[in-house]
Design brief:
Blueprint (H helix, E strand, L loop, with lengths): L18 H11 L2 E6 L4 H6 L2 E3 L1 H10 L4 E5 L2 H10 L4 E3 L8 H4 L3 H10 L4 E5 L4 H4 L4 E3 L4 H6 L7 E4 L2 H11 L4 E2 L12 H10 L4 E4 L5 H5 L3 E2 L2 H10 L4 E5 L5 H7 L4 E4 L20 H10 L8 H20 L3
Parallel strand pairs: 1-2, 1-3, 3-4, 5-6, 5-7, 7-8, 9-10, 9-11, 11-12
The protein binds 1,3-dihydroxyacetonephosphate (13P) and iron/sulfur cluster.
């Protein structure tokens, strides 16, 4: 019997299988849609029906007519899709694809934190479990966080979780004094300011473009700060032809596709013995696991009915505000 106990389907793909052809065939046959985050490997991005950042992927999940959503991303993204589409089958090729940022904010501890700050609006980054979203007033992604925070009157008391770097960045650009949960992403915190400055000296014409999950010193020396999709858009529009990219290096795949004549240099992590600018969780998904996932329609994402109902409200609120803002 095939089960999802390992977090993925541990079956060998039959010898001679053309993975691309088979995945495309099963996708049509089963009316499935493949959504992939920019941090997935290039082969997965290339076979996906839609590639995007956290916001765009949630928007796609909310409007798909497919019966099955295969989410090539991490667990919280699959959960968000399941909350939005409780009647659909939502699959993630490897359920072990977690997120250090989401893990830095357990729901019971976040609930106590909220209780310690009565009278605050709770804004949570999408990189959280459905249980944390269920405690939240409005969800944000890095694309819309600033605008959603600014949609509240300046005197509003706000709790922002779980990313302290994104929270600090929004506080600095809006002048707000949001109370921050002390969490972070191990990939974005790894970038080395010294190594980025050394690269800048080597490529004086290059622009440093940075995700707001990075630490403040890296953000401060950057020419542009934005979400994954905003960074991609910026590289297309900019008159510059060289970019030092301080986010997960998977997005460079699409940057190169959209601007083949430009040069993209992945920002190096402090620890040069590892590929820390690759998210080890995102990279757990492979073409083989995607093939098995579609074939066996496993592993599935489950969300408790009570959590689903409570988490839906702040996610829908985010989608409504984003639509109103034309995002
Ligand atoms: P965005 O997709 O919003 O840029 O967030 C990046 C991220 O950390 C996803 O895990
Ligand atoms: Fe989580 Fe960071 Fe990986 Fe994004 S890059 S999924 S925030 S650990």
């Amino acid at each position: 019997m095939v089960t999802q106990s390992a977090g993925f389907i541990d079956r060998a793909v039959p010898a001679g299988t053309n993975l691309r052809e088979e995945i495309n065939r099963m996708k049509k046959e089963k009316n499935a849609v493949i959504l992939a985050h920019y941090y997935q490997t290039g082969d997965i991005q290339d076979i996906a029906d839609f590639v995007g950042d956290s916001l765009a992927l949630a928007q796609q999940a909310a409007k798909t007519t497919a019966d099955i959503i295969v989410f090539c991303g991490v667990h919280f993204m699959g959960e968000t899709a399941k909350v939005l589409c409780p009647d659909k089958k939502v699959l993630v090729p490897d359920l072990n694809a977690g997120c250090s940022l989401a893990d830095s904010c357990p729901a019971p501890a976040f609930e106590s934190f909220i209780k310690q700050h009565p009278g605050h609006v709770v804004i949570s980054y999408v990189n959280t479990s459905a249980a944390v979203k269920a405690l939240t007033d409005v969800v944000v992604t890095s694309t819309n966080a600033r605008q959603i925070v600014e949609s509240f009157p300046p005197e509003t008391k706000i709790i922002f979780g779980p990313d302290r770097n994104l929270g600090n960045y929004i506080n600095s650009v809006t002048g707000r004094k949001m109370v921050l949960w002390d969490g972070a992403c191990h990939v974005h915190e790894q970038f080395s300011l010294e190594k980025i400055l050394a690269l800048k000296a080597q490529y004086p014409d290059a622009e440093v473009i940075t995700h707001p999950e990075c630490k403040q010193p890296v953000v401060e020396i950057s020419d542009f700060v934005g979400s994954t999709a905003a960074l991609l858009k910026y590289t297309v529009k900019s008159a510059k032809s060289q970019f030092i990219v301080a986010t997960e290096s998977g997005v460079i795949h699409e940057m190169r596709k959209q601007s083949p004549d430009k040069t993209f240099i992945p920002a190096p992590p402090a620890d040069s013995t590892c590929a820390c600018n690759e998210c080890n969780f995102m990279r757990l998904n492979t073409m083989e696991k995607l093939y098995n996932c579609l074939k066996y329609e496993l592993p599935k994402i489950f969300v408790d009915a009570d959590v689903q109902e409570k988490a839906l409200k702040p996610i829908k609120k985010m989608l409504e505000i984003s639509e109103r803002l034309g995002m």
